[in-house]
Specification:
2 copies of one chain form a homodimer.
Chain A lengths: L1 E5 L6 H11 L6 E6 L3 E4 L6 E4 L1 E2 L8 E4 L5 H4 L3 H11 L4 E5 L2 H7 L7 E2 L15 E2 L5 E4 L2 E4 L4 H14 L1 H10 L18 H9 L6
Parallel strand pairs in A: 1-2, 1-6, 2-5, 6-7, 7-11, 8-9
Antiparallel strand pairs in A: 3-4, 10-11
Chain lengths: 211, 211
Amino acid sequence: MRIAVLLYPEFTALDAVGPYEVLSRIPGAEVVFTAARRGPVRTDMSSLALTADAALDEVDSADVLLVPGGPGTEAQLGDPAVLEWVRAVDATTTWTTSVCSGSLLLGAAGLLKGRRATSHWACLDQLPRFGAEPTGTERVVLDGKYATAAGVSAGIDLALSLTGRLAGDATAEAIQLVIEYDPQPPYSAGSIATASPELVAELRSNRLLLG
Amino acid sequence: MRIAVLLYPEFTALDAVGPYEVLSRIPGAEVVFTAARRGPVRTDMSSLALTADAALDEVDSADVLLVPGGPGTEAQLGDPAVLEWVRAVDATTTWTTSVCSGSLLLGAAGLLKGRRATSHWACLDQLPRFGAEPTGTERVVLDGKYATAAGVSAGIDLALSLTGRLAGDATAEAIQLVIEYDPQPPYSAGSIATASPELVAELRSNRLLLG
């Protein structure tokens, strides 16, 4: 089982690494980090780079495609080579998935027309421009073979759900225990439903804080 | 504020990237990924490499030191250069922290003597050999300036707790909302307290699965 993860400049690291940490542990899974060119790709916070081991033209199929989000997504929406690659690989997948604003990239590739989908809470209002129907309240949304997750950390939940479907509940539970995923956030501001309205408004007006 | 993250071969990616995703967003924070040599460092699952932007001898101080864990920890426990670097940087920190088996490295450096600490559940029994007192039931343990987290994903919780102490609750809550950390695991096998005893026993007897 091949899992292709798309990297591009200014993606958000955890969007990619959260799901990778789960999916790479499925017995028989092979993960390939893929970008326009081989080599290091800088994340949005600039102090970290992940290595792309393959260039786009070296990966033409995958069982699972994962598209992370981040401030760099916007620049990719207008890149025909990236959109064409996403479409071509999607034609071969069992699951096509995204985390955070990665769903906008799936949308720009024309893959979410008429589908329910989610994204980072601050990007949900952009989904309709691609013909997708934002759900807003669900952390992981499955519609056909398309699985989209909410912002950044939601990719871990998406990957565990996907693992259950790809390899069975027992494997998903084993991986959950291996990564000791028993989250205990010390604050309860993790969604726009639980954070204070003042904090949500402040972040909406200050896009810089969103990374 | 400088945050130094130690990388070494076969570390677990999420141990480092979870906390980085939180701590790098603290206003004024600068994260530096540091390893024996500059360049890509392969994780335990081999399909991913993170870039170290600095060599150990280029970083001699930090406000926060973060040591991730992983199957590669064991090899580091006997490396005098790494242990000496951890001790030297620790002498300059406000917080010295670890995720997963990273606490064994802090222990081997002599930093956890007489301190309460935690680790990946499968490594807890190794803490006493370094004079540390394993807590077992806590996901994040603070003892003085030493903050240790349980396995892999626990680094996110640790980093949010630390952010509250370093930059205040409001900043920690803002970062939690930015990374939409409102976890909803689809299974409840994330700790040895909630997973089935059969699964815990199976993973204990099959160390390969632990990565």
